[in-house]
Amino acid sequence: MADTQINPRHPIDGTPEKKKVALGTSIGATIETYDFIGFGTAAALYFNDVFFPSSDPLSGTLLSFATLGIGFAVRPLGGIIGGYLGDKIGRKPVLVGSLLLMGIATVLIGVLPTYQQVGVWAGILLVAVRVVQGLAFGAEWGGAILMCFEHAPWRRRGLYTGITQAGFPVGLLLANLAFLVSVPLGDQWAWRVPFLLSVVLIVVGIVIRLKIEESPEFEELKAEGEIVKNPLLEVLRDDWRNVLRAFCLRITETAGYAVTVTFMLSYLTSEKLADRSVTLTGLMLAAGLGIAATTLWGALTDKVGRRPVYLVGTAITLLWGVPMFLMVNTGAAVWIVAAFIISYAICQNSLAGVQGAWFSELFAAKTRTSGASLAYQLSAVISGFTPLLATALYAAFGWIGPAVLVSGYGLLGLLAALVTQETWGPAERERVAALEAASRTATGTATGTGTSPTTSHG
């Protein structure tokens, strides 16, 4: 652990801008999620008929989900580029650039021609724009989380990164609200309007992010000449085990979501268990609760540690697959809504709320963006094609296929949590308390100390 020499670049109580940074990164995450997840909702409800031949509904659904998966497949490349640039030139430029790129791609989706208008070119154009979305979203997460983490108070990094992560359910809520409100517009405009409306959010997000100060830890690395020549190669050489662990931890959350929400939307519609208004309302209620849930799960990790919360979340996911389908198969609106709430606010949010702090603490500051982004976005390849896999399993085995898939993802995350180091246990919390006391003795205020005691160097 670092010595107790006071260093204002690493304030124990966080930087003066910590709240503004948390708000700014959360709003940016909201906008990018609105854009990216909105595509998932549209893929489940509209794109099978709009961009692909309507003569074979199952094939249209498979092609629609394949297009959805392509966006996830290129996210690792976005994460690699964004992580590399974040460790080389700073976190802030990546935040602004990724948001601008995402906005342009999303608005373009809203003006694309349909299959009835241009034939197969409709699907090709959709894939091209989806690739751009995937690159932008892949670059987004690492920069946003790291900016928030490195400005936050040491004792409340779980809470602050949980606030950033809560931007994702806000984006989910807004996206599905837009699709719900647009239903009366008819099939031609119901899917276009939500994408076109994102232009307003993009302008707001760019203005906010331009006002955010750069990460103090990156500024210190730059001042001391500690910028790594090739952060990606260094993290893969020296810290590949943590990349692998975080990758497995993340799969449970993101791939689990792909079944319990994205595939479930299509399943409920195709089986005529619920109309679009019921499914979108259920998802909106879950997302609304998820805003608070994600933040609270993150705050809980500041009290009990990162690993215990993750163990609980993955264990619940492991047990949830079959009960979830039994609930929705009743066709009762109340059970369908309850299933969405449990899937999202408990299973998904309990994991997402932990990842910001835990993944950041697994890597050293000089390669943190590359390491965390790579692990986080590589898992997106699995999750991106999970709705396609779930659809194939359903065609072969019925609903029990995707139900077992959910449980399998839960088991993988549970095992990964058991073999990943705790970065904020009792020992770390006691060491921070000692540093706080030493800093107050030296200066009369809690101004800070050297390198964070939760930083891993592999």
Automatic annotation (TrEMBL):
Transmembrane annotation, as ranges: 21-47, 62-86, 93-112, 118-138, 159-183, 189-208, 247-268, 280-300, 309-326, 332-354, 374-393, 399-419
Region feature Disordered, mapped onto this chain: 437-458
Superkingdom of origin: Bacteria
Pfam families xref list: MFS_1
GO cellular component: plasma membrane
Signal peptide: none
Protein name, UniProt field: MHS family MFS transporter
Species in which this protein is naturally found: Nonomuraea zeae
